[in-house]
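Input record, target 12 of the design panel.
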């Protein structure tokens, strides 16, 4: 027979095990948000972007509710990337063919088909189908100058445009030590206006405003105003390589339309270069650097 003291020890041990089993099992369980996030990542890897975007969108509020801050941030960034892909490359082959035919009716069907079949038009494969850049048709005329020249109206516009610039910037010869002359002051205005109904009820709307920077022929760059300025989180760095003013709008506090205006000013000079042809030399067309920077690609 089992002694009473020993029996109680066995009962106590079994009770502890009974308590530990659900605890251990619970540690290994995956949250719903995490499961959806990993499902979205798998679809993302397989370039099934519509399914990935849907899963990321469903996973995001769950991850936030589960207080998985790091995963929620990654999920949000991935969702934005999915939306960027699908917005930038929305056209299927039938749609891009239609756009090209409407824009270049004077070009033969065979040549238009060759533009597509050659793969030169910007494209991505997602959801198992080839999707084309939303401005693919416009870019063709910049890639094929013979096609551009057939558009008489556009050629006249460019000729007038270039002529006016040359007349504006024409300047007398300057001494070699004076590379900049004839300063012009430019004032720019940038505006974003979005109806309140088109924005989410809450969250943070982020904006990055590109602004001019100080360079050799460009100075006196000034940010005149930001209206309203309460959304500015990081002022523009006008003397860096890239100038961006960063803003955040708390949407739960936005009662009316989003309306932001940025005004800036800068001075730009005509540049003069004194080039001695004897110092130019010849290109080594077999050099990797030459091949890299003279190759044809994209735009």
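The sequence produced for target 12 reads:
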């Amino acid at each position: 027979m089992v002694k009473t003291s020993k029996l109680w020890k066995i009962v106590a041990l079994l009770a502890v095990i009974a308590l530990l089993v659900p605890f251990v099992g619970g540690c290994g369980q995956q949250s719903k948000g995490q499961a959806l996030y990993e499902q979205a990542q798998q679809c993302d890897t397989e370039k099934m972007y519509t399914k990935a975007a849907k899963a990321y969108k469903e996973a995001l509020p769950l991850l936030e509710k589960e207080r998985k801050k790091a995963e929620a941030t990654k999920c949000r960034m991935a969702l934005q990337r999915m939306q960027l892909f699908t917005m930038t490359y929305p056209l299927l082959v039938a749609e891009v063919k239609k756009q090209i035919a409407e824009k270049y009716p004077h070009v033969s069907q065979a040549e238009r088909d060759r533009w597509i079949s050659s793969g030169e038009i910007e494209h991505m494969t997602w959801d198992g189908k080839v999707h084309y850049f939303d401005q693919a048709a416009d870019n063709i005329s910049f890639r094929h100058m013979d096609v551009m020249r057939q558009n008489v109206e556009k050629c006249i516009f460019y000729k007038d445009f270039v002529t006016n610039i040359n007349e504006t910037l024409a300047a007398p010869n300057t001494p070699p030590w004076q590379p900049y002359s004839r300063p012009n002051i430019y004032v720019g205005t940038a505006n974003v206006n979005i109806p309140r109904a088109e924005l989410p009820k809450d969250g943070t709307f982020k904006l990055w405003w590109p602004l001019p920077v100080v360079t050799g022929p460009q100075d006196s760059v000034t940010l005149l105003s930001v209206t309203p300025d309460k959304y500015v989180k990081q002022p523009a760095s006008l003397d860096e390589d890239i100038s961006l003013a960063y803003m955040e709008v708390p949407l739960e506090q936005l009662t009316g339309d989003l309306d932001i205006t940025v005004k800036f000013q800068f001075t730009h000079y005509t540049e003069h270069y004194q080039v001695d042809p004897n110092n130019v030399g010849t290109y080594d067309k077999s050099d990797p650097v030459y091949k890299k920077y003279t190759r044809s690609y994209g735009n």
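The radius of gyration is 30 Å.
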